[in-house]
Automatic annotation (TrEMBL):
Protein species of origin: Meloidogyne enterolobii (Root-knot nematode worm)
Top-level taxon of origin: Eukaryota
Protein name: BTB domain-containing protein
Residues covered by the BTB domain: 1-71
Alphabetized Pfam families for the sequence: BTB (PF00651)
């Protein structure tokens, strides 16, 4: 997504993300540099997932889905269903369906 030469961001070498929390952006940058996120999962996974969705960072989206699926319980299943509805999250959706079979 970031390598489109016609985009202003590509021409300037700068991307301004003004509609997201700095914590989510930091987590995404950590993922870009290390391929993982060591902290922040528990309390920020939904926001990180939304940012990864917006910028089409598929590997980060997948890692977020795996984490949410591993934490699935009766207290967060509706939140997870909402995430699936808004963004599409096939791995998380499969986990929820399996839980109800």
């Amino acid at each position: 997504m970031f390598d489109q030469n016609l985009m202003v961001e590509a021409q300037k070498g700068e991307l301004i993300i003004s509609d997201s929390s700095p914590i989510y952006v930091r987590a995404m940058l950590e993922f870009f540099y290390t391929g993982d996120i060591k902290t922040l999962w528990e309390s920020h996974v939904e926001g990180i997932f939304a940012l990864a969705h917006k910028y089409e960072v598929e590997k980060l989206k997948y890692k977020c889905e795996l984490f949410m699926a591993s934490q699935l319980d009766s207290t967060n299943v509706l939140k997870c269903c909402n995430i699936i509805s808004l963004y599409g999250a096939p791995t998380l959706e499969k986990r929820i369906k399996a839980a109800f079979e």
